[in-house]
Design goal:
Elements (H helix, E strand, L loop, with lengths): L2 H9 L3 H32 L18 E3 L6 E3 L2 E11 L2 E11 L5 E9 L5 E9 L2 E4 L1 E4 H13 L2 E10 L2 E9 L4 E11 L1 E3 L2 E6 L17 E2 L9 E2 L23 E9 L4 E5 L5 E6 L3 E6 L4 E2 L4 E7 L7 E8 L2 E8 L13 E8 L7 H15 L6 E7 L3 E3 L5 E2 L2 H12 L9 H9 L10 E8 L6 H11 L4 E7 L5 H10 L4 E4 L5 H13 L4 E6 L7 E3 L12 E7 L5 E8 L2 E8 L4 E2 L3 H20 L2 H14 L7 E10 L7 E5 L10 H5 L6 H17 L26 H37 L1
Helix pairs in contact: 1-14, 2-14, 4-5, 4-9, 6-7, 7-8, 10-11
Length: 763
Amino acid sequence: MSIIDRYTAGAARPRGWSHSLAFFLTFACLVLLLLAGFVRHTRAETAPVPAGLVTLGDIESGALLFKSTEPGKYVPAPLLATDVKIDVSGPIARARVTQRFINPGDGWVEGKYIFPLPEDSAVDTLKMVIGDRVIEGKIKEKEEARQIYEEAKADGKKASLVEQQRPNVFTNSVANIGPGETIVVQIEYQQTARRDGDTFSLRFPMVVAPRYTPKEANPQFVDFEPGSSGWGDVLPPERDDTLEQPPVLRPEMGNVNPVSLKVSLDAGFPLGDVASPHHEVMIERDGKRAATIALKDELVPANKDFELTWKPAAAKAPTAALFRERVGKEDYLLVMLTPPSGDVQPEAKPREAIFVIDNSGSMSGPSMDQAKESLLWALDRLKPGDTFNVIRFDDTLTVLFPDAVPAHGENLAVAKKFVKGLEANGGTEMLPALRAALTDRRSGNEDRVRQVVFLTDGAITNERELFSEITSNLGRSRLFTVGIGSAPNSYFMTRASEAGRGTFTHIGNEQQVVERMSELFEKLGNPVMTDIIATWPDSRTTESWPNPVPDLYKGEPVVLSARMPEAKGTLTLKGEVAGEPWEVRMSLDKGEPRPGIGKLWARRKIEQLEADARIEGDWERNDKAITAVALEHHLVSRLTSLVAVDVTPTRPDGEKLTSKDMPVNLPEGWDYDKVFGEQSIPASQRAQMKQGVMAFASYAPAPPPQADAGGMQPVSLSLPQTATDAPALIHSGILALLVGMALSALWWLRRHWSATAWARRAR
């Protein structure tokens, strides 16, 4: 027998033993795997995860997670996609905002979304789409609407509630969104385009910027009744004016709430330049006076306001517009008239310019750069006969000079150095700065025009206190607000300038600084249109707003809303322009019929009633009038809300409902840590949230075009499930590891046995 024959014969003997060993190891692996699965199943049964709560290991696809009260458990947040369609006809815009609430989890949720709308928007329509049904919202007094919504939520019925927190901040609550379900809610509103000279503009805000709440306590008063022996009771504080604020995501987590937007523009005159300063858009012309504007990217993050501007081609825009609507037994009118500026301008008086700049944390980043550049530009435009001062504020206050100083080289150099050294930090205590700016040590001096230029993003919650300060202490001053950044508080800025008999200017990026500040200084340097009086055919039966007509600056139109039994006769407007008398007459029966004029009148009247309440302090009387107007015209207001309820309960008894505020993005250009302070977020949660946000943005397309009211088609969203189940991955990994170890052991034993057998045979 050769050596090879002897080795083969000897090596064959342990083969049966090696097969037995392989069988034994494989059997052991299977047993261990079954035991692991049994233990996991037992633990799941003994400690179930509450409905709607998940662990990080349970997530099978991208999801945005909120912490729950149970350690290691999270709530999949409802998500949102928004589609905006705006139809502009002349100076009137009608907008339809479609919000799609998406529940990616396996529990029942209530989503609450805080969102902005234009400060002059008249919100009048709410629709909720469930399957193939469209449920129309009804206008109710705020408390009644809230009660209806809460009862529907408790009964497991789908419901939607739209409430106003500020004229430009609304909340939409949607109850009982089922697992994997999408609920479509549609809101409609009416507004007018803004006109400044020959430029028309329209803004659609996309994000509610975080607001600073001043540290001062809400004052309470003590009531001493006769015969109380000196003891009194502390009265409850005045009505709550707190602004509810949504959670804000850190920018590194990605962006949520994608928005698609389209504008159909019919200017009513030949169009010239059409542009969007803050977004890239595609513009398709349709004849000489119409165009369609859409976002270049199908979806954009909701982190900055959208603005559209348009101008007439070649010739100046028409100077007058008259629209009317018949509702019931009354006519409603909208009048827009731009007086001529005059060829001969009287010599302008020297000014006392008080510049106030906000350097709080919300102004960090590009906003601070824009504000500083704007102020430096303004300082360079002061004339030798002017005087000025500079005030800066965050949660502290600095007044640069003890009093207004002459605008000569040395003082200007000190001011410019001061401005260049400003950094954004701290809170937004605006009231002390406003008081300092309105303090007038020469209140009887008519030789100078006193102008306060206030540069800020307006990110505060105590608007009522500030309005009261302006109306009480304005004196001879005029207040001009300059809104800085991608998402300014336009409601506060606009109303503050109206109360201060000035104007509002918005600067959204550095490219607009020179253009917008030039326009502002042209107004500051030109005489105002004063003593404007509107005389209606029958003043006894006509309600018109604003009343009285405010002073206007160069390029600003007179805008009046009126209600009367019948639109006939002649409206006469008189005033002074550039020191010269001015008069114009309009035949009211020539107005172009246009829907929605009545709602614009009602919104304007509500604004006037709110302003009267702030000035007079008689909230009870004005609140009754506001409620009556809002209910009559089906409008959302501070005291009325829209509520829509499905009659059929959908959430099964015993199923828990989880409520969560839906997060918003930080406005573009803001610094999170400057606004909120440095906050530590676990790396695992940050990574998971960012994954969910990015995944959602990639598969949430804009809703398809909707049909007319009442015929809107329901839309659905299929959520991708492309990831492998986490427990299955773990089990597969364990099995592969054990099999690999068994094969390695088998190979080693077989080789070792063969080598020893070879050695024994060789001896």
